Amino acid sequence: MNRILYALVAVAVIFTSCASSYDVQGSSSVSSLDGSKLYLKAVKDNELKKIDSCDVVHGQFSFSGVLDTVRMVNLFMDDESIMPIVLEKGEIRINIDNVSQNVSGTPLNDKLYEFIDKHNQLDNRMSELSHKQSRMLLDGIDENIINEKLSLEAEKIAREEDRLVTDFIVDNFDNVLGPGVFMMITSRFKYPILTPQIEEIMTKATDKFKNNPYVKDYYQTANENEARMQGLDPSDISVPATTQESPSVLGDSASSILGGSSGLGQ
To answer: Which regions are flagged for Low complexity bias (predicted)?
Structure first.
């Protein structure tokens, strides 16, 4: 009997040791965060659910737990979304200050925040155009000339932003970053729509990306909306076939997890 118990314990230890885990170590110099409770939240079954929590003590905080699958989550303070994080094996480091938020230490987080940094650089260039306009007006340059010049610059930055986002999603179709950033760019819309950028992404998409619950539901609904706007019967439209059933994750929960919280567009 004892040998059977020992064997069961040994098996349990082996399975436990093989299970992946996440370890998040964070620091913050933002005084308003001290003493606050932070949450990791993720969309599951159409709802935004808490999966972990901790307190910020003297600017330090940490999360840890068993990792059943690599997933993209958001760090929240109460109902305020702060930043996206990829929960994956390894020590994940978060740094929050009054200027920026950054996650590093694991491959997908490093890749995500390299992308976010590049996106923020484009945002800064776009914001600088308004200052440039003011300087040109003070220099006595004709307003029509100013508008023409700055419009061309704005269009160039917008094209760079579209290419940056599209290429990033395409390069990460088969990991959590592709669907996660797709959620970021689509959550800004009031309802699912098709854009040239989305059409390009879906034309190149792998089956795994198309079968992601959020992507699948968004694209199906966007096609139906497009059909309605053209006066067609949504039931007549054809979208690429997928191989699995997936629930809808559109709506407030899906939009709030990443939209407007990643530093994109800020």
So the answer is: 250-259
